[in-house]
Amino acid sequence: LAFAQALELSPRLTRASLGQARLALSQEGAEQAAALIQGALEIDPKSVEASEMLGDLNQSMGRFTEAVDAYTNALNYGRNKWMLYYKRALARIDVGAFDEASADIAASEKGMRQFSGLQFARGMLLLKQGQPDKALPEFEQFLRAGPNEPRALFYAGVAAYQSGQFEQAEEYLARFNAAYPNTMAGAQALGLVRIGRRDFEGAEAVLSPFAQAKDPDPRILSVYSRALAGLGRQAEAIQTLKQVVTAQPEAASPRLQLAGNLLAAGQPDAAVTELRVLLSQDQSNRAVRLLLIKALLQDKQAAAALTEAEALSQSAPEDAEAYNALAVALLANGQE
């Protein structure tokens, strides 16, 4: 009798936990919501609703592996599986399980062929696989059904940008930013597109509110510095990049960018200092070594430039740029 009563009580307890979880989510208590959903699953491990909610929550929090696990559990017990396959496909794309994601997309399509979300999923899969030119038509087809869907607008812009179609990228990302003006990702993407179009003033305008905020994100500062440099405000660009390097001392890309800006500003000695730091972290970085040779030559350190150029050409005997750098260094040292 007690066992039968427990079985009868279980669904009600599960629904109560899920109701509390929805309330926690509405109040932005994601961790509390996750704990409540886990509690519901302990009561009823076969609750498809709880597993799907947990998958959605993990996906929104960037816990993609956990999202895959939750959707898989829901699929084990659910009946209308096509939406679960779709959601799991998106989570699998985010963890780089592309073959499995493709299989999930096919399974979802088999269950609901007319579902427009499949175009979005295929677009995301192609984009993450490095095929933005093929991803863009999928996003565009999806946008015909939902012209203002934020994720599709954003990723259509990204795909267009990566395909070199800057005008289209600007159109999609401008629409995204108009609808969602306070997202750093949208501003960063639109800023990159405008820099690609050499609209540095437009890039500075969209990036500035985020770059000038308290505790700005280093990623936005890196892009912002490119807009400043394009406007000829090199000193500001260098100061901005120094902020990034201070915040991310182990990151190679911003320090390399800083060295390039210092060199462009006629400060080769400072550029050499930054490049030496990078080489101490990674001796094999070809881009760093090529720029170091250029900086040493500009700093009138011809002998040091030749030493670096010889070492680079020996380590990469088929590298044309390395041999060009060696030739320039030899000439600077009076050798032909």
Write up this protein.
By secondary structure, the chain is mostly helical. The protein has 19 helices and no strands. It has helices spanning 2-26, 30-43, 48-60, 64-77, 82-94, 98-111, 117-128, 132-145, 150-162, 166-179, 184-196, 200-211, 218-230, 234-247, 252-264, 268-281, 286-298, 302-315, 320-332. Helix 10 runs antiparallel to helix 11 (184-196). The protein starts with a helix and ends with a helix. The relative contact order is 0.04. Mean pLDDT is 87; it is low at 1-18 and 23-27.
Summarize the structure.
It contains 19 helices and no strands. By secondary structure, it is an all-alpha fold.
Give the proportion of residues in helices. Answer: over 70%
Average pLDDT works out at 87
End-to-end distance: 98 Å
Helix/strand/pairing category: mainly alpha
Low-confidence stretches: 1-18, 23-27
Biggest beta sheet summary: none
Oligomer: single chain
Approximate strand percentage: under 5%
Rg over C-alpha atoms, rounded to the nearest angstrom: 26 Å
Outline type: elongated
Total of DSSP H or I helical runs spanning 4+ residues: 19
**What is the element string, with H for helices and E for strands?**
HHHHHHHHHHHHHHHHHHH
The number of E-state strands comes to: 0
